[in-house]
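I had to read the description of the data format several times before I understood it. For illustration, here is how one protein appears when written out as sequence plus structure tokens:
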Amino acid sequence: MTQNIRFSVDGDGIAILLIDVAERPMNVLTPGFRKDLAECIDKVASDPSIKGAVIGSAKSSFMAGADIKDMAGAFERGLTAREAAGFSGELNRLLRRMETCGKPFAAAINGVALGGGFEVALGCHYRVIEDSPKAGVGFPEVKIGLLPGAGGTQRTPRMIGVTEALRLISEGKQIGPQEALKKGLVNEVAPAPEIIGRARQWILKGGEGVQPWDKKGFRVPGGAGMMSPAAAQTFMIGTALAAKTTMRNYPAPAAILSCVYEGTLVPMDAALAIESKYFGQLLSGPVARNLMRTMFINKGAADKLARRPAGPPKSQVRKLGILGAGMMGAGVAYVSAVAGIEVVLLDSTLELAGKGKDYSKQLLAKDVGRGRKTQADADTILARIKPTVSYEDLAGCDLVVEAVFENREIKADVTQKTEAVIPKNAVFASNTSTLPITGLAQASKRPAQFIGIHFFSPVDKMPLVEIIVGKKTSEDTLARALDYVGQLRKTPIVVNDSRGFYTSRCFGTFVYEGMAMLQEGVNPALVENAAKMAGMPVGPLAVADEVTIDLQWKVIRQTEKDLGRKFQKPAAYDVVQKFVEELKRPGRRFGAGFYDYPKDAKKRLWPGLKDVFPQAPMQLPVDEVEKRLLYIQALEATRCMEEGVVTTAAEADLGSILGWGFPAWTGGTLSYIDMIGIRKFVAECERLAKRYGKRFKPSKWLKARAERNEPFHGGGSQKAA
């Protein structure tokens, strides 16, 4: 028995290899596992008494794939494309040895086989998967900027054809046992206790230890290359779709297309060398590193409540109060009820509170219609939400979330009325997106139990929650707020108090910069399209309409009132004022903003924009517009770091991607700066400041950091984008 594989041979001469990677909760392709698998393959191949082998798992799932933490760190260690290709090449040679050693290998897949784990199974000559909703196979690599690097791009099209293989690999989705059987990716679906037995039987009945592609005359199902009409059409359409969906910011989809196209034209060994080459290019590049670090490693840590203080005991919200049944309050009520929490939804009238509950009713009806929930489940969830106008109903709440208008006086009034009836140890949380928590806590008699819990709209879809710590917020309160977010299975970041906090502050710069360019005479279509080309989900003018220009004007006026002489007008102050007070086009909810919203057609940019803001005869280059939109957000993130609003680069990155849609390919606001190189970023900011205004001026703190060439994520050299 090796350290990572339990090796045994039964009385029928069948070797059983149970993968049990040491000190890991799930099987992954560690160096130790690869070494042990090579040793086991050699045993099977060299022992004449062994007829064949079954590879299964001693853990709850077959195998996940590569160690992503190690791969993410490889970039920081200066891994070259050649070295990265060598990592893939080693795996390919190992699995190639298995499938050509002359003995039949069968995979018994329990749970999931994903990425490299699925590639191990594909290297076997036969596959049996357990019949369970928890079981599945797939290639998630594209989601972290990679492609399957252990034969997945070559064995899959040779098994199921180019078109189906590209769909599976490019979409990165997991498919269940029956679909895998239908596609031809597995040979049998069986009850969990029988999968090893079924795999053994296949070998005992004369299962052949030769892959189809190693037989003379083999052809890829459906054809390959440009000589096959079906395959040629797939590659032509696929290339166009990849460019459209990624805006050429993500190299993996294009690499997958090239890898499959080139590889299916040559014999398997040459095909695997092609795969390793493309894998090496991706793994050694910054985009894969960014996606792995932020969207896998750092998100995983946040989901496990890494920022939770260690001292306070674990808590659970059993009864939740929500003040305000509008869009945000209704959304918080829904996700809380789904999590099993009793919810009291309070508003000024029963009609308004009832409408808030109706939001949950509508979402649950959709789930029932799609087969995601039974009607009984939906009724149970809905019964947890109680609409009310009485503050007395808040008695016994562990936590109260305030989601009323962004008005200091209204928030103070509901805070005092609530604290009069809730338990003394209850936590009061404001869902404000801009008003400082410390200021709002002045209306509270228990500021240590006052905190900000900022949800994002729509709450049922947006994964991030921004937790804001006021000056008097206790560690116990922070821990309880994080425990509540954990109950909702959302991703929290923790920030310190500031006007606009982290997410609203940085996102506001994106919207205002778009408006500033409009005012300068930049074509509004150029502004909107450049934003999407950079990787933002929507343009700044479109998103301004969605959140309403009216709300932005109210926030600006409240800030002006609060700060007095210290107030500095944002770049778009005049544009916002003009649209709200003069043009009476305050946003989508009111039927008119930067866009028109005809009832019988798609929204379109308001034609009157060219009259209000005449376009300049010379337009900016697209890359300059993109740069302004991304740089202004990243620069504001550095200011938040400097001021201690956000305290870790990991949370700054995560908050930017999950909170307001900063392009994931960058890894987030601060990873984006590291990718460019901090010295180059600061120099560009200086240039932008001279040309467009002091809002781009880097601080002394940032310039000093640039002089030291100190990245925001520690270690490793910086590589230019």
Q: What stands out?
A: The CA atoms of residues 452 and 468 lie 4 Å apart. The longest helix spans residues 622-642. Residues 715-721 have pLDDT under 50 and may be disordered.
